[in-house]
Amino acid sequence: MKTTTITATIAALFAQLAFAAPVDNLDARAFDEMERRAASAPVERGFTETTVEERASNWVTNGPAPPMAMDVASTWATLARYQSCVRAGYAWSCADCNLLGGSSKNTVLMTGGDDGATPVHYVVNNGSHLIIGIRGTNSNDPASLANDVNFVLVTPSETYYPGIKAAGGMVHAGFYGATTRVAASLAPTVQAAVQGGTTNVIVLGHSLGGAVGQMLGVYLTSLLGSSATVYVRTFAPARVGNPAWADYVDATMGERSQHMVNFNDPVPHLPPLAWGFRHSGNEVFLDKLGSLDPLVCSGQENSHCADKYEEPLNWLASIVQYVDSEVHMGPYVGVTLRGNC
């Protein structure tokens, strides 16, 4: 489908929505360090409106951004390969899948999604962790693009996010709809695997899949409770919700939820801050193309990291260019995400 045709399709969708209602297994040492840091990070419970007010005065937007430890960066590279395998299906036999040990070391428990309204996704057991991968926007499918352009802010269900109404959290309607469909598809498989004894869950996603991955990870944290530890590691996610949502994510997951941004990729700047959206904390930033040395960015929307490239964007007209751009696909610590893998 040509870009001009897709742009016209998006414009029509926008007109409707404007009036719509509201390597082998993971490196053990690196993952141990990830878990240690997460265990020491404060995670609040009983999230309330008062919590939001208190945290609002403590946002860090220009704090330090030190280099990430090499072993932790290596773990991100491994996770990028898992993300690249999101379309491999049950065969698990593409180039990146083979570097991860192929089907002999990774059991695909389920695959789902139609690559349209519901992003393609999988659940894999690699012997020590459940890995969930979620694909980004399919720029050739109007239903997939519709998830992106339905940017009305809505209050999500308390069933998925306890306390979200009191917190004032609101999320992107299109991302939320996609999340509920993905959750319905894979939650039974995840619950069964956790009951079977696999208690570490890692949610991955890229672009649209990164936004869905964050929302899914927060939901699974509530759903699974103390029976599992859920981590979110996403690549180039769009902004998911308002500042109260960003605080809700940080309070619920702390450092267990992180997102990686590649240099001047425009997608993580969408929807714009001016529209009332905000990223949660724990950004991991690659400050130049091909960087193997990520920066660990303190606070939300750190001006020393991706926000240095924040600028007005003609989002609606150029969304196809952005989601298919080279910088958007990587490399992420040396790994380029392969859309056909």
Automatic annotation (TrEMBL):
GO terms for biological process: lipid metabolic process. Residues 132-273 form the Fungal lipase-type domain. The keyword Secreted does not apply. This is Fungal lipase-type domain-containing protein. SUPFAM superfamilies: alpha/beta-Hydrolases. InterPro entries: AB_hydrolase_fold, Fungal_lipase-type, Sec_MonoDiacylglyc_Lipase. PANTHER family: ALPHA/BETA-HYDROLASES SUPERFAMILY PROTEIN, FUNGAL LIPASE-LIKE DOMAIN-CONTAINING PROTEIN. Residues 1-20 form the signal peptide. Keywords: Disulfide bond, Signal. It comes from Apiotrichum porosum. It catalyses: a diacylglycerol + H2O = a monoacylglycerol + a fatty acid + H(+); a monoacylglycerol + H2O = glycerol + a fatty acid + H(+). Belongs to the AB hydrolase superfamily. Lipase family. Class 3 subfamily. The keyword Endoplasmic reticulum does not apply.
